Amino acid sequence: MKESKTWKSYSKELKEHAVNDYLTGKYPQDVVVRKYEISDRTVLQSWVNKYKNCHREIKATAKGLGHSMTTAEDFGSEIRKSLP
């Protein structure tokens, strides 16, 4: 099977739900990746790292664009609300 070279886009909402499910401990990383059909666990891990290290807002990914996050407090606030 040939590996895909296309860029997969993800909505802001999907990213928020995936990061939230992982950070709250609701699901382990591999389950979150399958549940949200994320291309690879390293994609999820990059979203988690960006949130944890910089409290950046996750935005929808536009095809062909490399950066999917920008600084803002909204995403961090949403995740913090759901953490125990």
Notes on the protein architecture:
- With 84 residues, this protein is mostly helical.
- The chain has one domain.
- The protein is built from four helices and two strands.
- The chain has helices at 12-23, 29-35, 41-54, 74-82; strands at residues 56-58, 69-71.
- A two-stranded antiparallel sheet has the order 1-2.
Features of the shown structure:
single chain; mainly alpha; 84 residues
Task: Please summarize what this structure is.
The protein has 84 residues and is mainly alpha-helical.
The tally of helices reads 4
User: Which ranges are low-confidence, i.e. pLDDT below 50, for 5 or more consecutive residues?
Assistant: 65-73
Structural class, judged by helices and strands?
Answer: mainly alpha
Q: What sequence of helices (H) and strands (E) makes up the elements?
A: HHHEEH
Across the major sheet, the strand order is: 1-2
Instruction: Give average pLDDT, whole number.
Output: 77
Number of strands: 2
Overall structural domain count: 1
Percentage of residues in helical conformation: 40-55%
Percent of sequence in beta strands: 5-15%
C-alpha end-to-end distance:
42 Å
Rg of Cα set: 13 Å
Shape: globular
- Oligomeric form of this entry? single chain
Largest sheet: 2 strands, antiparallel
Q: Topology of this structure?
A:
Elements: H1 12-23, H2 29-35, H3 41-54, E1 56-58, E2 69-71, H4 74-82
Antiparallel strand pairs: 1-2
Helix pairs in contact: 1-2, 1-3, 1-4
